[in-house]
Amino acid sequence: MKGSIRPLISILFLIALATTLSCRIFIGRRGQHTAAAELGSNRALIQNFNSTLLKFAAIDIGEEKSKLEIDQLLELNFGSLGRYKAYAAWRRFNEHDVKPRNSKGFSEMLRSPKFHRYWLDFRRNLQDWARKKMFQPDIMMDLVRLVKVPIDRSNRTYKSCAVVGNSGILLNSRHGKSIDDHEVVIRLNNARIEGFEKHVGSKTSISFVNSNVLHLCAMRKGCLCHPYGYNVPIVMYICQPVHFVDYLLCNASHKAPLLVTDPRFDLLCARIGKYYSAKRFLEETAGKSLGEWGPTHDGSMFHYSSGLQAVMLALGICDRVSMFGFGKSTSAKHHYHTNQKGELRLHDYEAEYEFYRDLVKNPHAIPFISDEFKFPPVVIYQ
Asked: What InterPro entries does its record include (predicted)?
């Protein structure tokens, strides 16, 4: 990892090699042997480069920190007032009158009969989640069983799915009808649709959120954890283990399934997102090593976007996937429903766009996914 990789030089070498090979087509057998040897050498170069990226992408920088936090939570060790604040959602969603003054008082409150059942559910869910947190390349073939069966009790895939991103490029797109024509519409992070129906549609079949969105909602008075209705299934991935509190309390008031993504699926998405980010980093910064990728992307704070994982989910449960609202332009807002213009540094959107392009044109180039998985056709609408 510490050695410097120069992909741009390799690319130039490829171009030069291709030119040389085209000239040698008319050369005798000896020339053909020379060209074949050079081509074999270059293939080895590419394989070594890709192997290095794969090993790098498989490293979870935040793994130790996450394990420590899980252990502390299972021991009911909140550690700081900040940890207590994370649990304020319990009172928000359930309208309890208990107001402990500090984290110690909150620990005592959890041990009371009123809250004990919440604590037991929290501990069980966290333990199950932590136990499954491992890499499994064939997890994509399990998504129908893990996600679709709990939602509609059917083990057949959906015929067509629209994954609706939140990019400002959706404004003036008038994709609303096209989106609603799909059998299933997946929306991200509680994005508002009222007033934007002609561009983003009005149908919502699955709400896909990251747990931080649900947690922030829990901290605000009057914020509903199910804005698309009590009967719309929610699929959520866990950003921080402590957010299982928000999951439990929102689930208590939700009529449709509220599912937490399998951590094996989360790890697969994390590796793919990091791989494309590291690959882009090396291609655009000739001479820099992979060791310099971390400081550029905030190291352990780096994370794939909700959109990437929602698309990955659709790949596993749909026969055909359409993507809307993925991309950007200089004149468009970051989110169509907010005034935010800047992008979050913890995501590498440009790298994710490269991943989406591979989904459309060359899905078998995508690493870490089992060779037995059959990719459905993907179309990106701008």
From this structure: Glyco_trans_29 (IPR001675), GT29-like_sf (IPR038578)
113-163: per-residue pLDDT in tens?
Answer: 666 777 788 889 999 999 999 999 999 999 999 999 999 999 999 999 999
- Distance in angstroms (rounded) separating the CA atoms of residues 194 and 201: 9
Shortest CA distance to 230 belongs to which of 247, 203, 258, 254?
Answer: 254
Hey, how many other C-beta atoms are within 10 angstroms of the C-beta on 105? 13
Burial of residue 364 (CB within 10 Å: 0-12, 13-18, 19+) is exposed
In this predicted structure, the answer to whether residue 191 has a pLDDT above a threshold of 50 is yes
pLDDT digits (tens, 9 = 90+) for 323-364: 999 987 766 676 766 777 666 666 789 999 999 999 999 999
Instruction: For residue 241, list its beta bridge partners.
Output: none
Whole-angstrom Cα distance, residue 63 to residue 49?
25
Half-sphere CA count of 216, side-chain side, radius 13 A: 8
Topology classification of domain 134-273+296-381: sialyltransferase cstii, chain A (3.90.1480)
Ramachandran quadrant class, 222 (left: phi over 0; alpha: psi -120 to 50; beta: rest): left
In DSSP terms, 186 is beta-bridged to: 163, 206
Report the 10 Å Cβ neighbour count for 8.
Answer: 14
- Largest pairwise CA distance in the chain: 89
